[in-house]
Amino acid sequence: MGRHFKIFTDHKSLKYIPTQKELNLRQRRWIEFLKDYDCTIDYHPGNANIVADALSRKTVDQLAGMICYNVEYLTALRAMNVHFSVGGDLLLATMQVKPSLKDKIKDAQDKDLYLQKMKTKVQEGKNDQFVIQNDGTLMNGKRMCMPNVEELRTEIMHEAHYAPYAMHPGSTKMYRDLRPYYWWPTMKKDVAEFVVKCLTCQQVKAEHQAPAGKLHPLSIPESKWKITMDFVIGLPRTFRKHDAVWVIVDRLTKSTHFLPIRHNDSLDKLAELYVSEIVRLHGIPTSIVFDRDPRFTSHFWGSLHKALGTKLHFSTAFHPQTDGQSERTIQKLEDIMRACVIEFRENWDDHLPLIEFANNNSFHSSIGMAPYEALYGKKY
Q1: Number of domains forming the structure of the chain
Q2: For 348, what's the count of Cα atoms within 13 Å in the CB-facing half-sphere?
Q3: Cα–Cα dist 373/359, whole Å
Q4: What is the CATH number of the domain that holds 369?
Q5: Could you tell me the residue range of the domain that residue 13 belongs to?
Q6: Integrase catalytic domain: which residues (predicted)?
Q7: How far is CA 47 from CA 13, 42, 57, in A?
Q8: What is the mean pLDDT of the chain?
């Protein structure tokens, strides 16, 4: 903002948060945000801060105004359950979007005998697991209770599985992504059955059987961005001539970068991409594990990492178990890419950034959370 300013709060302890020794993840995010500004936090009693208190509680549920003469836009907005009111010289003066799915769920709850019994128990104080919101919606903690209506449950599962950037998640990932928001007694079983019936999943997903012999997983790194990497090749050539993906995985948080490349890209091109997409964002990785691909074992690549101060660790040739995490991620990416190719055809590389985002923002069983939660402290 270019100048110093003060933040006044009626929460006295917030004044000392910049010097607080122990911070939780939420506090760390706020401190990281405030570091971009030249500001100080001062305490101001609530009874002396009436104006700010009133502003913070003012509800704003409409747009001041929007001029729109395109009939196609209006038709599209109406299809999204947008409600209009006309005023003055504006064709569209106010707009309010109603959460139609939530309304349908709430209406169906009123007709579900099981959920009605739960509501009665909550009102009688006999069940503290469930709560009733101000609008009458029954919740299991923070999860919306789904009535026994097959169409509604299928609609939710269809959106979680077939949305363009969901890319057909497996049953465990899909269940863990839905679980924070919805609840019904047979949810896990229904999700598993839904995924089993998906024709695309059956066509593109490989079997992942446990290999014979003992596995020797790599030790858990002590810091972020000790990485593994490999290539997925043989993909359909796109309009930009990409036919491969460079997979780079942070071994600690499982955060992944999917970089579209050409299988015959030169070492100079790969080195430039590595610096611009990995070093620029995360600093210089202190350790890298990869297989004995000629591109990695070349004198040039070794010299580059020597100059950067990075240790290189080669996995055993033709033995993917040595670097199982990266290989499993690649298997998973191949499943996603097959579905992506079916969905997006020759421009799959245009959608790769959002596929990367969806992958990093969804549950990962090996760490018990989404990679973004491990890396940034929250999902998006």
Answers
A1: 2
A2: 27
A3: 12
A4: 3.30.420.10
A5: 5-56
A6: 217-379
A7: 17, 15, 15
A8: 76
